[in-house]
Design brief:
Subcellular location: Cell membrane
CATH topology: ABC transporter involved in vitamin B12 uptake, BtuC
Structural class: mainly alpha
Membrane topology: Multi-pass membrane protein
Strand content: under 5%
Distance between the termini: 52 Å
Family: Belongs to the binding-protein-dependent transport system permease family. LivHM subfamily.
Order of helices and strands: HHHHEEHHHHHHH
CATH class: Mainly Alpha
Number of helices: 11
GO cellular component, one term: plasma membrane
Radius of gyration: 19 Å
Protein name: High-affinity branched-chain amino acid transport system permease protein LivH
Largest sheet: 2 strands, antiparallel
Shape: globular
Strand order of the largest sheet: 1-2
CATH architecture: Orthogonal Bundle
Number of strands: 2
Length: 297
């Protein structure tokens, strides 16, 4: 039981990162029904912005978070305006292909500009200590980095919930998600609302990128591919388009991964995740929190 609970703690810290990335997927999908496959690569850009802020500007990790969020938000808005906005009324397949192309552009552009070297955040920016925990008489351990990841994730999620439910911008986002034509008739600037959604999602990806770089102690231009795909799986598991679903899916996927690694094989971790995606699509395509909507013909 102690080993099981230890794996849960490890899984929650990894799942927190997946949840942050999945939130960006689900926000964009919820408002314009687009799977933004470039989202994982925006994560990579945010991780590098944070790295440069720490290494070259000599800033602390909190300023790195802020600068990375600002830079990734700007990139997200530019991508939306340049690549996706002209295809707003085009078939969804065209926008999907464009998203894949934008992802490849960021990945290969990153390789050209940043090189293929693996870099690490400098030691000492976060004090990573082992902390003993006692749960039901069992002795467990957690690191300060794991607690930081979980705390940052919870704060970001609370902020997002506040923005979505209690601000004018959040009300506009919900209106556009429900019916963009009706929202436009009510005086809502749909284009600006979509841009804000991309900016928020990209900011969350930047935070996840820095946390991922700290968690694995490595960053490189292709680092966003697998976490981005897994976060998409997490969003589908929870119910894509639903913010609580993205949170639940991220945490569930992180715990599931660590269980597979701990009790079976780390080599099977990635294949099992995508097998899980297939099972979810077959058995409950709307996700754990989604509802199946039937249409009468």
């Amino acid at each position: 039981m102690a080993g099981f609970l230890q794996q849960v703690i490890n899984g929650l810290s990894l799942g927190s990162i997946y949840a942050l990335i999945a939130l960006g997927y689900t926000m964009v999908y919820g408002i314009i029904q687009l799977i933004n496959f470039a989202h994982g690569d925006i994560l990579m850009v945010g991780a590098y912005i944070g790295f440069f802020a720490v290494v070259y500007l000599k800033l602390n990790i909190w300023w790195a978070f802020i600068i990375a969020m600002a830079g990734a938000s700007l990139l997200g808005v530019i991508i939306e305006r340049v690549a996706y906005k002209p295809l707003r009324n085009a078939p969804r397949l065209a926008a999907l292909i464009t998203a894949i192309g934008m992802s490849l552009l960021l990945e290969n552009g990153g390789l050209m500009v940043l090189g293929t070297d693996i870099r690490s955040y400098p030691g000492g920016i976060i004090t990573n200590k082992q902390l003993p925990l006692s749960v039901l008489g069992m002795q467990l351990t957690a690191t300060t980095l794991q607690l930081l990841i979980l705390a940052v994730t919870v704060v970001m999620m609370v902020v997002l919930q506040y923005i979505v439910h209690y601000t004018r911008t959040g009300k506009a986002m919900r209106a556009v998600s429900h019916d963009p034509d009706a929202a436009r008739l009510m005086g809502i600037n749909v284009d600006n609302t979509i841009s804000v959604t991309f900016a928020l999602g990209s900011a969350f990806a930047a935070v996840a990128g820095i946390l991922l770089g700290l968690y694995y102690n490595t960053i490189q231009p292709l680092m966003g591919i697998m976490p981005g795909l897994k976060a998409f799986v997490a969003a589908v598991i929870g119910g894509i388009g639903l913010i609580p679903g993205a949170m639940l899916g991220g945490f569930a996927l992180g715990v599931f991964e660590t269980m597979v690694s701990g009790y079976w094989s780390s080599k099977m971790r990635d294949p099992i995740v995508f097998i899980l995606l297939i099972l979810i699509l077959l058995l409950k395509p709307a996700g754990l929190l989604g509802k199946n909507n039937t249409e009468k013909v």
